[in-house]
Amino acid sequence: MGKNLKEAMKMLEDSQRRTEEENGKKLLSGDIPGPLQGRYENGCAYFHEEEREGLAKICRLAIHSRYEDFVVDGFNVLYNKTPVIYLSAAARPGLGQYLCNQLGLPFPCLCRVPCNTMFGSQHQMDVAFLEKLIKDDIERGKLPLLLVANAGTAAVGHTDKIGRLKELCEQYGIWLHVKGVNLATLALGYVSSSVLAATKCDSMTLTPGPWLGLPAVPAVTLYKHDDPALTLVAGLTSNKPTDKLRALPLWLSLQYLGLDGIVERIKHACQLSQRLQESLKKVNHIKILVEDELSSPVVVFRFFQELPGSDPGLNAIPTPNMAPSAVSQERHSCDALNRWLGEQLKQLVPASGLTVVDLEVEGTCVRFSPLTTAAVLGTRGEDVDQLAACIQSKLPVLTCTLQLREEFKQEVTATAGLLYVDDPNWPGIGVVRYEHANDDKSSLKSDPEGEKIHAGLLKKLNELESDLTFKMGPEYKSMKSCIYIGMASDDIDVSELVETIAVTAREIEENSRLLENMTEVVRKGIQEAQVQLQKANEERLLEEGVLRQIPVVGSVLNWFSPVQASQKGRTFNLTAGSLESTEHTYVYKVQGSGVTPPQTPSGARTKQRLPGQKPFKRSLRGSDAVSETSSVSHIEDLEKMEHLSGGQDASEANSPERHPEAPTPPEAEQTGALQDRAQRLEDDRPQVEEPESLR
Q1: How many CA atoms lie within 13 A of 411 on its CB side?
Q2: Residue whose C-alpha is closest to residue 288's, from 391, 401, 402, 400
Q3: Are 98 and 91 in contact (CB under 8 A)?
Q4: Are 166 and 136 in contact (CB under 8 A)?
Q5: Is residue 316 a contact partner of residue 331, using CB atoms and an 8 Å limit?
Q6: Where is the composition biased (Polar residues) (predicted)?
Q7: How far is the C-alpha of 221 from the C-alpha of 685, rounded, in Å?
Q8: Predicted confidence (pLDDT) at residue 657 exceeds the cutoff of 90
Q9: Beta carbons within 8 Å of 283's beta carbon, 6+ residues apart
Q10: C-alpha distances out from residue 239 to 45, 226, 232, 235, 675, Å
Q11: CB of 431 closer than 8 Å to CB of 421
Q12: Which pTM was predicted?
C-alpha cells in the first residue's frame, strides 16, 4: 500500500511539472499578452526606436531564410539571384531608399506596385498587377523576397486586400509584412475583415506611442519564426541586458493604463472619426475619401465644386470630353481653396489636430487622424461638432470665391493697363498687376517704379474699409509686385472692383510723374533764378558805382545823395513753370500767382451707396432677396441721394456770379474790415526809403 501511494504521488508531481512547463512555454512562445492576446499566435516581439528599423531587421531575416549560403558567401549569392522587395505606391515616402541603405542593396531590388486605377480604392495595391510583376521577376531569374502591405496608408488610411495578398505570398513563398494605423483596431472587439487578415501575416509593426499618446515609447515589431539562430543573426534578438530594457517604458505605460485604458483610448479615437464622417456626409460640396472603411480611424475630406461638364454623382470627376486645361485649372483652384480651408480649421479648432496633405490623384485634402493626435491634444466629441460647424460656415466663402474667379479674370483681361496673374497657390479671387508706362514685360526682375505704384495702390485699397483683404507680394514665377485679392464672403461687384484698381493705379502713376516733372522744373527754375540774380547784382554795381561800395564813404555818400532804386526780385510760378518779377508784389503789397491751378480730376467712379454699405457691394436694385418694404426704402434713398448730387452739380454749373446787392457773408465782412485797417496803417506810416544795400 505504501508502495502504491508513493507511485501515485510521483505521478501527480510529474503531471503538475508537465502542466507548469506547458504554461511557461505558452507564455514565452504563445499569444502576445495584452490587447492583442488571441489575435497574433506564436509571435515574438522586437522593440526599436525608429519605426522603420523593425522592417529592416525583418528584411535581413528573410534574406537569411531564403539564401542558405548567405552567411558564408555573402552578397555573391544575391548577385546570382537578385532579391526583390515589393512596396505599394501609397507607401511612406523614402521607405524603399531606407531599406536599401540599411541592407546594402541596389535600388533595382525595389519594385513599386501601383494602386488600383479602374476598380476599387485608388489607394489600395493592385493585386492582379502585383501577380504579373511577380511572374515577370521569376522569369528574369530574380527571387521575390518580401511584400510590404498597408493596414491604413500613411496618407488616407486605406487598407490593402491583405487576405488576397496573403494567399499570393503563400503561393510564391514571399514574406508578408503589414504596417499602418488601422492595426490599432485589433485591440477592439469589432474588427473589419481586411484588418483582421493582418493577424495571419508573417510580421507586423505597431506604434503604440502615438496611438496612446505616450512619449518616448518604442515601436514593436511582431514576427513568426522558429529558428532562433537566424533571428539572432538578423538582429531581432540579443543577449545584451541593455537591449532587453528597451521594452521597459512600454511595459510601465501599459501597466499604468491597463487593458481597459488601452482599449478605451483606441475606441475613443475611432468614435471621433465616425462622428466626423457622419457629420460630413450631410454637408454639400464636401467629398470624403474613406467612406468604405467603417472602422478606419482616419477621415480625409476635401472641398469640391461640380464642373459644368461633370456628373454630380461622380463627385466632380471630369468627363473625357472636357479640355485638359479646364480640368487642370479647376484642380489648382480647388487645391488652393482646400489648403486655405485646412489652415482656417486648424486655427479655429486647434484641438482637432488637422493636417493638410497633397495626394497624387485627388489633390490637396484635409486629414483628421485622432488616433495619433487625440490622446495628446485631448480631442473630445464637442471639438468634432465644432469642426463640422466651422466647415459648414466656410462653405459660402469658398463657393462665392470660386464663382467670382472667372468673372474677375475676364474683367481684368478686358481692362487696359491691368494684367491678370495666374497664381495656382493663391486661394483668393485673383491676382492682378498694373502695367505702368515704363514696365518691361519681358523682364522677370523686380521693378522699383512698379513696387512704388503697387505700394500706394495697396494703401488706397485698404483705406476703403471693404470686406475684401488686399496684400502685395511678388508675382508667381517672377519678382514683380502684384496685388493679391483675398476671399469673398458676399456678392461682390467685380466690375467696380477692377475699375477702382485700374483708376487708382493710374492716378498714382500720374501723380508720381507730376512730382518728378515738378522736381525737374523747380531745379531748373532755381538755376535760372541764380543766374538772373547774379546779373542783377552786377547791373546794380555798375549803376551805383565803386565809391558806394566802400563802407564809410558809401554811407556818407548815400546820406547826402540816396539812390532811387526799385525793388527787384524773382518769384517762381509752379503752375506755369516760369520766373516772374517781384515788382508787382512790392507795388501792390499782394503776392498773386496770376494763374489759378486747376483742380486735380478724379477718374474714380463715384457710386452712391446707402448708409453703412461697404464698397464693392452689388446694388440692391432689382434684388429679389430683399423684402418689399426694405427694398422700397433703399431705392427711395438712392434716388434722393442721386437727385441731390445731380441738383448740386447743376446749380454749381449754371449759377451766375454773385449779384452786387446780395448780402455778404460775415466772414467776408470781417476779412474786408481787416484789409481796410491794414491799408490805413500803411498809408499813415512815413515813407522813408532805406538804402538798397541795407534792404
Answers
A1: 20
A2: 391
A3: no
A4: no
A5: no
A6: 593-605
A7: 111
A8: no
A9: 388, 391, 392, 395
A10: 14, 17, 9, 10, 112
A11: yes
A12: 0.69
